[in-house]
Amino acid sequence: MLELVDIHKTYEGRPLLQGISFTVAQGETVCLLGSSGSGKSTLLRIISGLEKSDQGKVFWDKEDVYSIPVHQRRFGLMFQDYALFPHKSVRENIAFGLEMKRLPRSVIDTRVTSALEQVNLTGFESRRVTDLSGGEQQRVALARALAPEPRLLMFDEPLGALDRTLREHLIAELRGILHQSQVPAIYVTHDQEEAFTIADNVLLLHDGMIVQSGAPDEVYSHPASAWVAEFLGLGNLLIGLVANRENIQTILTAAGEFQLTCKHGHQNGDLVQVLMRPAGVSLAGEATIESVKGIVEDVVFHQSGFKTTLGNGLYFYLPTALKIGEMVFVQTGSVECLG
After folding, report:
1. Statement to judge: residues 84 and 222 lie in one domain
2. Among 123-127, 149-153, 267-271, which is the least confidently predicted range?
3. In sequence order, what are the residues at sequence separation of 6 or more whose Cβ sits closer than 8 angstroms to the Cβ of residue 23?
4. Are residue 185 and residue 69 in the same domain, yes or no?
């Protein structure tokens, strides 16, 4: 098992990583999700030994790996550009690292064959990598990472160069391969759909800190802060004023008044962040309790429905397309206090 304890790193005099701690269990895929510059790639380099942290420890099965050279850690690292040798065949690319270790030919052949089977490329041994599609090259790079039988696999935006359709197909395939191999993995991305598809556990990085962690459904259903909700694009964010009435949690916003349950224990007069999710809403014929009034400003087709933006900036997904300029009352669905 991999364990990081209180990792700190500065870059150009500014804190990049601030007290990062987490574990990766056998067979688990952990995804580091965050915007560019949040320290995700630097964290991978620290784990692999390519870079040193200013403070903190990296353990593998409770052994500090600080003094273990990069090539002896048995941690595989796969990048976006794949770094394949264009003049070599598929087999030669996969075998290269094994040959550098001077393993017996029989062992190399066995591992290459096994790796090709794992990524569904049996029969591609003699093909030139330059003759392969982007998705096939990605699988060759994965086979090369699997062939040395690593204790840990790390992926740094491995699908970033691929188009959306191919990326969606390969991420599902990669998830299956990782679960089958039972190799623990750390997957770095800025794409939330990618992260939620592949991860068993998601770690959200912001300003060099883990601001939320958990299973994908937990993170999506219960964002820990307004930043998390905004980064994940979960819906409309509003500033609200707590105005409890007769022991009922009431929050006043520019969009309306809402009654909801909040675990934060606010007092009357406190300002809070409110998340109004855009799905699961309906139209009302007139103003009702917890409805939102607005003039339709824009309507765009979306797979979740027609994304309807009102003049007040709020947006909702509706089953039918409304007319621009139409006055509507939207009965809100999920409204929650983020503290």
Report:
1. yes
2. 267-271
3. 1, 2, 3, 4
4. yes
